Amino acid sequence: MVMNKLSQLSGYSINEMENQEMMSVLVEEEKPMKPPSTTITSSSSPSSNSYAIWANLKPFAYGGAAGMLQYSLACFSHLLRLELLAMVNKSLPPSLAYYNAWLKLPGILLFRATYTSMQFGSFETFTRKVEAGNNRMPLTLYQEACCGLSSGAIAASIGVPWLLAHGRVRAGGNRISILQDLYRKCADEGALAPWKGGRHHANYTILINVGMLTPYNRCFNCFRESLGLSEDGSTVGAGLVSGFFASACSLPYMNVCSTMMSTKPDANGKSPYSSFLDCAIKSLKSRGPLAFFTGFSKHFLKTTSPILILWSCLEAVRKSK
Fold it and tell me: Could you give the CA distance from residue 65 to residue 40 in angstroms, rounded to a whole number?
């Protein structure tokens, strides 16, 4: 009776009061427990840092190794040619021919390693950056050409001094290495002297790198995925296409330069061509567009064979990682 009176005064029945007590207990049980405070320390492992560094340096290392391997294969044919020349030219003993060849070998090997490492390493670095900016989408032909142009400019800045020094050593007939010639040039004329007079070499190097680097990856994927060729067959096919476009990009520049150098000035001592562009336009008007590709077959064979060997060496180095 007393409980009924109390429930009536409070406006709740006994059952409702019991339900309310049970709900309060359940709510207390469902409250999440506060986890103990822990201090988390993040530290980057040395192995991950070394792997990231190697991932960035790997294209440069592979490119340098491919250049060294390519030249080592070319050395056999070069020494054979020296032996034949020594047999024909009796005034040049074979020992002297070999001595001159081995004297230039360290400089040429260093040049090939440095040149191809910057050539392939910078191109792959640029393509990775552009691909990351494209949200991992494949590069367009224009973007690949820009990457090839940039890597060609970097390779030309390294290759031009070596090419000029090699020409001076061959023309002078002195038994000195290319490194000695570069050292003398810098000591006599200043630090920027090795790059003087190398504008045509730089332009030719940039053009041949654009034609060589731009189509290779696209053609390799096409031969591999669309045509179903093997890796070796795709490498050969893409290397041939790469050599074709390298020849097509570099030969017009060579022909225009040859026309300018072979043309003699008139009676007043004035050249008929005021600039490279003027010579190209006049050649186009007088002889047509095919004049730029005169001697293409010979230039194609001369250019494609080392490019094909270089791509094959690079793929072999990539497989042996």
Answer: 44
Cα 180 to chain centroid, rounded: 28
For residues 189, 104, 309, 58, the Cα torsion angle rounded to the nearest 10 degrees is -70
As given in the structure block, the two tokens for residue 281 are 């336009």
Q: Is 42 exposed, middle or buried (0-12, 13-18, 19+ CB in 10 A)?
A: exposed
Contact 201, 209 (CB under 8 A): no
Q: Decide: 178 and 162 in contact? Cβ < 8 Å.
A: yes
| DSSP assignment letter at 294 | T
Yes or no: say if 273 and 242 are a contact pair by the CB < 8 Å rule: no
The answer to whether 300 touches 244, Cβ cutoff 8 Å, is: yes
Most distant CA atoms of the chain, gap in Å: 139
pLDDT, tens digit, for every residue of 235-248? 999 999 999 999 99
Distance of CA 82 to CAs 41, 44, 62, 109, 176, Å?
66, 56, 30, 18, 18
Report the percent of the chain where pLDDT is more than 90: 29
pLDDT 10s digits, 162-196: 888 877 877 766 667 777 888 888 888 888 888 88
Q: How far is CA 268 from the centre of its chain?
A: 47
Distances (CA, A) of 128 to 55, 93, 121, 144: 12, 52, 11, 11
CB contact burial 75-112 (16+ within 10 A = b; e otherwise): eeeeeeebeeebeeeeeeeeeebeeeeeebeebbebbb
- How many angstroms separate the first and last alpha carbons of the chain? 93
Q: How many other CB atoms are found less than 10 A from the CB of residue 308?
A: 18
Question: What pTM did the predictor assign?
Answer: 0.74
Chain centre distance of CA 274? 35
Q: Which amino acid makes up residue 261? A: M
d(CA 234, CA 212): 15
